[in-house]
Amino acid sequence: MNVVEPYEPIQHHWFYNQQVDSKDSWQPFSREDSQRLEDAYSRVGKNEKDEVVATDGRRYDVRLRERKRYSVYWEQKPAEVRRCSWFHKGSKDMNYTPYSEELCNLLEDAYMIAMTLEEWKTNLELPTGETVILHNPKLMIQYPSSCKEFPPSPNERTQPRTLKRGIENIPVEIPEGEPEIVDHLVFMVHGIGPACDIRLRGIVQCGEPLSSKTEYMHFFMNEFRNASDSLIKSHFRQSEDSCIIGRVEYLPVNWHKVLHGETTGVDKEIERITLPSISRLRQFSNDTVLDLFFYNSATYCQTIVDTVASEINRLHSLFLQRHPHFTGHVSLVGHSLGSLILFDLLTNQDTDADGTPHELHEDTHVDTGCGSNESLEEALKGHGLEEHLNILHREQMDMESLMLCSEKDLKDIGIPLGPRKKMMNCVKKWKHSRSGSGHAAQNETHSPSLGMRNERHAPTTSAVDYQHFDVGIGQVSIDYPQLAFHPQAFFAMGSPIGMFLIVRGLKRIDPNYSFPTCKSFYNIFHPFDPVAYRIEPMILSPDMDLPPMLIPHHKGRKRMHLELKEGLTRVSSDLLGSLRMVWQSISQVPAPALAEGAISSMTPTDEAEVSPMEQEERNFTKVGTLNRGRRIDFVLQETPIESFNEYLFAIQSHLCYWESVDTALLVLREIYGNIPARNTNL
């Protein structure tokens, strides 16, 4: 006698539709997020008020009544959300697709009746025209609309679809969820162009063929975030289990969209003068290479820097609103040109006497002696603008407050266009004249400047402010906005910073120089990256040849091919040393005391048996103060396939950092510096 299994209600799980190559790809929410959505769903049914549920580490909001998932920090098309319990899959499909909520309810009612009455092999016609046959609890098939009367033969093209009830019966990986506590916030700034990897994807990939970098950035943030979360579980497991650490949040900063958007109109102007031949190559060049020239243009450099700073401050403020109990630090990551933007931005940050950053976005190195109405009156009379003094006096403005005004502020108080332009031009000149003396005084009494300039007639060693160089292409003179926080660390990935500093005329970086508000700086690069340049040779003396620090593999050792290469090099050097020692013993006149000393001096030391990483740590050399005296240049280990042909993988090596687990581990070691990380020798 067969035992009848009682009917048990289905456990629902929530999914969202992530478009990939214009195709639907339904992804499950984490177990924690799905449970929160289910709890909110039960509350929504009792009242008319809509429920908004924060998911995915509070990076997305789900509006229950709309069944939509909205991104919080970046622009992205809302994704459809479903409360799922039944799934279907064709013979050629890779994954199961959830039915709509209406069809799930219809199928569940039919399944409940069949289970209760033990009546199987019943036909259920769906509103879409397909027919579902419930053969038994384990076998349920959906047939196309052309096969309502009878199942199709094997020769027919239309194939039936398999049905599954409950998420536990389909092969899908459901994430557990992210820790609620965020220990550290990292802003990641992209480089040139809309593409971020060798497949020309950008940095929030929501799957649609869109050109904006923000629309693709989520994909790479997820890759880096997932790698970071996995490393925390594997390398910081004890601290995580003890709730000592939570997680690190990574947020993308997009400036490409503003530069190439409707506001500047630069793309339309470039398109008008672009030749029609080899259109794809020219389009690629316009989207990528031109960003380098834009950054060296006074007009567009100001746009780029303002966009990066304002976006970072906006995201920081929004993050604090959504995480009101956040007490951790903030770090910055820049890739390619993005690292240069952040380098210039951090170099031009200002600090008050107590070490706090200025909140103003203009240069505040002004002479306090120019803070009276009399000095303002004299300055305006010298430029024929005295007729507008009454307006400025009415607003209680002096020289200092005028320097803090934007053109929009002057327009709002009633200054006409012509005088307004003249006034802004005068303000710009006053700023430069005063900031020059202000920086000079600051350099004499506080911190040294970045470096030294290459004169055409003779080299000089006097420290000057590098932003005023007129050698090479120079750095354009712009007003640098201020960040709303002090970064803990700055990570440059595949960075051309060193090359740009040389082209600007910088001879070497002052060893005593450090960022005004950031005390740690890491220059990370792949050995085959054609865009990356080193920083340490610009700090160390020319006669010191210090190789970059090798980034350990995340599994705790060097890659096999690098160990073999190092072993062969060591064997060959030992063999040459032995031959040299034998030759010297033969050629030299016997002298017991000298021979003994010679042999003992040539005896291999214990250091030969120590790994290169440990030797480098033992032979620690202080490298300036940009990274608090620690090493700055860090090189990734190339993979075995990359070592076969470095030219073949050159472009890919410049785009590898977003998916590099070793890079993510280096970032985590800096963030959790006081917490020991476990080495996994696998």
Automatic annotation (TrEMBL):
Residues 1-83 form the WWE domain. One of its GO terms (molecular function) is triacylglycerol lipase activity. Residues 432-455 are annotated as: Disordered. Residues 483-673 form the DDHD domain. One of its GO terms (cellular component) is COPII-coated ER to Golgi transport vesicle. InterPro entries: DDHD_dom, PA-PLA1, SAM, SAM/pointed_sf, WWE_dom, WWE_SEC23-DDH2. Belongs to the PA-PLA1 family. This is DDHD domain containing 2. It comes from Cyprinus carpio carpio.
